[in-house]
Amino acid sequence: MRSELKKIKTICDDHETLCQSFAQWKKDVDENDAQLRILNATAASLRKRHRAICEQIKKKPSTVHSEKKKVSVVSEEVDRLQREISFVEAEVDVWMKELAEVNDARTNLDIQFIQLRSKLQRSMTNVEVANIDFDLLEKNHCATWKNFLCKTENFT
Questions:
Q1: Coiled-coil segments, which residues (predicted)?
Q2: Which residues contact 141 (CB under 8 A, 6 or more apart)?
């Protein structure tokens, strides 16, 4: 009887551990969702900056009276736009790397969910079997106790 109770306790402990794993999985998914929201906001910001750069490129430099000043203004504007484009390209590279990492993490979370769901189904079956075993143990205990009481009454 002790071994059956020990098995039932182990099944319950395993089920509790599995529930904690699900809670951690949910927390990780929420964190992954937050990272995706941040990346989406970053993508929107990068698109906006890209549009602004394109608009600036379309504009002609302001008219300057002197040819030397005009060349200087155009050169400064081109340098500024090149720096801005380089900065945006660097941010896009970082964004793509982060997106790949978040995507990999989500894929792993999806795999983990499938594994946890399978373990949970098995655990639920084990809990049901343990419940049946527990009911059987209780019946046997009651029968043994009743038998003991009957024998005790016969002695008196």
A1: 64-98
A2: 1
| 8 A C-beta contact, residue 137 and residue 5 | yes
Instruction: Please write the tens of the pLDDT for every residue from 71-104.
Output: 677 788 888 889 999 999 999 999 999 999 999 9
CB-CB contact of 65 with 73 (8 Å): no
Give residue for tokens 């043994």: 144
Cα 20 to Cα 14: distance, rounded to the nearest angstrom? 10
Question: Residue 68 class from Cβ within 10 Å (0-12 exposed, 13-18 middle, 19+ buried)?
Answer: exposed
Q: Which residues contact 85 (CB under 8 A, 6 or more apart)?
A: 53
111 secondary structure, DSSP code: H
- The dihedral through the CA atoms of 80, 81, 87, 90 has a sign that is negative
What is the pTM assigned to this prediction?
A: 0.63
Query: Residues 28-41: what's their mean pLDDT?
Result: 96
Which sign does the torsion angle of CA 83, 89, 90, 92 carry?
positive
* Residues in the chain, total: 156
Which residues contact residue 155 at a Cβ distance below 8 angstroms, ignoring those fewer than 6 apart?
none
